[in-house]
Amino acid sequence: MMTAEQYEESLRRLNLVVYMFGKRVENVVDDPIIRPSMKAVAKTYELAHRPEHEDIMTATSHITGKKINRFTHIHQNTGDLVKKSKMGRLLGRETGCCFQRCVGMDALNALSIVTFDIDAEYGTEYHKRFLQYLEYVQEKDFTVDGAMTDPKGDRSLPPHKQPDPDQFIHVAEERKDGIVVRGAKAHQTGAVNSHEVIVMPTISMRAEDKDYAISFALPSDAEGITYIMGRQSCDTRKLEGGAMDQGNLLFGGHEALVVFEDVFVPWDRVFMYKEYEFSRQLVEQFAAYHRQSYACKVGVGDVIIGAAQTAAEYNGVDKASHIRDKIVEMNHLNETLYCGCIACASEGHKEPSGTYCVNILLANVHKHNVTRFPYEIARLAQDIAGGLMVTMPSERDLESPETGKWLEKYFHASPDVPTKNRMHILRLIENLTLGTAATNYLTESMHGAGSPQAQRIMITRRVNMQEKQRAAKRLCGIEDL
Amino acid sequence: MKIYKDLRIKIGLKYCGGCNPEYDRVAVAKYIEERLQGTIEFVGPEGEDIAIVLAVEGCSTACADLTAFQGMEIRIITGIEEAKGFIKEVKEREFR
């Protein structure tokens, strides 16, 4: 397994084509906007080496029997699925942001199921190829970007009817030694911190869309891949220096638009090729795993609850009954989220490939709660923090000989608490609820791993309504059972 | 030259993963080590000649994977009170 330091060095060896603010980023690892997100991924490597976390952070490879980072593991039982949820909470709390590595794990697990099932239907060799690729990823301890979301163009049209065929990634050319692909993937979390990218179709495909029903893996610096960094609210505070105004001083996340402009993929890295009838299964199972992965928001919720309680104490209002009640409500919501991610893992099942998959209904219910509860937790945190969180002058004003004395005088609250500490905790709440981290704690909670409507569709598909009706009719004497 | 044999009891230290611990597990392990200084030696769970495996669990779920230690003497602690009990047990064992 790589250490955090080895991970950082491995990224320096990549030749990524990254753009931000209209310019090529020459040194991705040390860029002050990107670096906090790299540090968050590095935490997944660091904790795997710490005795007090290895029970969650590591696993035994079912291919080689070697100890591996859990982020490269294929779930072998429901215990593995439960540990995955716990790992999400742990890392969410350690980083206070998105640590970006779950999506690759979810892609690997979904492909371990679907490649097996395609082979069973068609006698193809996808599963063998996949296992060779998996062993490579486990051996190298790579971070993998699982890329699903296409730009999608006109949402009312299927891929093959789009005026611009590149709105969904598709086969541009078939060669003897592989395929050439073209298109893009949007919202790619952690893309420039990844060694590899796994591409999957974004929706169910029909026969007419078969050129779009493809899945493959590429090195993240393959020729023809370009990354265009997304902005986050308050992102340029990271350029200001200082040790307060960016809120979370250690970690962050990032997203990027990833463009594939005629990229060559050798056959041994192709895991689905025009078997369009399996695209729905791949989407649903990847989505289910990834909806479970929103266990991370429970860990970030731990941070925001801790910050709200601290702000209440610093403001001298922690004994007020309404503040206590709000903290209870925040914990209630956060632990309800935890219930969902543990339940879908505990109720997992074995697929024909041997991989354990989460309970898909419960994973969707969990993620659906995630689209709502963090917003309420954030609202309560802002309520407790008070308006100063958004009207407070900068760290430089606190340090200025002209203005610092006034900030010290007028922002001092609890006699035992330095003004600076009060400002620090308010900046953290600002960061989580409307700064860079709100990208991940709020909007990613809404749309990441599928928007709320996607979960409602899956809940409708997965609920056994007939059994519910039968139970109701039996109790009131209706006899058409 | 005399060669002194290390007579300290080897304790295999195994933590749970620490997803949501109710106390500082590492600090409690250090507390045990300090109070049993000269009596015990903490070794990794893969260490040799382990007399007792000490599972330091962050909560009462106690989910640390202990399957590798089947047949060995195992003590589980889920907080400071049980840590004190473990210290007492080791001291009594040493006295005997």
Would you tell me the structural class of the helices and strands of chain A?
alpha+beta
- The shape of chain A is globular
In the CATH scheme, what's the topology name of chain B? Rossmann fold
* Number of separate domains of chain A: 2
Q: How much helix, percentage-wise, in residues of chain B?
A: 25-40%
**How far is the N terminus from the C terminus of chain A?**
57 Å
Secondary-structure class of chain B: alpha/beta
CATH architecture label name of the largest domain in chain A: Beta Barrel
Order of secondary-structure elements of chain B: EHEEEH
Tally of DSSP β-strands of chain B: 4
Q: Uncertain regions of chain A: pLDDT < 50 for 5+ in a row? A: none
What kind of assembly state do the chains in view correspond to? heterodimer
Task: Give average pLDDT of chain B, whole number.
Answer: 91
Distance between the termini of chain B: 30 Å
Q: What fraction of the residues of chain B are assigned to beta strands by DSSP?
A: 15-25%
Number of strands of chain A: 14
Pick out its properties.
heterodimer, A: 481 residues, alpha+beta, Butyryl-CoA Dehydrogenase, subunit A, domain 2, Butyryl-CoA Dehydrogenase, subunit A, domain 3, 18 helices, B: 96 residues, alpha/beta, Rossmann fold, 4 strands, globular
General description of the model:
The complex is a heterodimer of chains A (481) and B (96). Chain A is α+β, with helices and mostly antiparallel strands and 481 residues long. Chain A has two domains: 4-277, Butyryl-CoA Dehydrogenase, subunit A, domain 2; 292-476, Butyryl-CoA Dehydrogenase, subunit A, domain 3 (Up-down Bundle). Chain A has helices spanning 4-12, 35-46, 54-57, 78-95, 102-122, 126-140, 279-292, 296-315, 321-346, 360-370, 373-385, 388-391, 395-399, 404-410, 419-434, 438-447, 452-462, 465-476; strands at residues 18-20, 23-24, 58-60, 67-69, 144-147, 170-174, 178-185, 196-199, 214-219, 225-229, 256-266, 270-273, 349-350, 356-357. Chain A has a six-stranded mixed β-sheet with strand order 2-1-10-11-7-6, with no helix packed on it. A four-stranded mixed β-sheet of chain A has the order 5-8-9-12. Chain A has a two-stranded antiparallel sheet with strand order 3-4. Chain B is of the alpha/beta class and 96 residues long. Chain B has a four-stranded parallel β-sheet with strand order 2-1-3-4, with helices on one face. In chain B, helix 1 (25-35) links the parallel strand 1 and strand 2. In chain B, helix 1 runs parallel beside helix 2. In chain B, 30% of the residues are buried. Chains A and B meet through helix 3 and helix 4 of A and strand 1 of B.
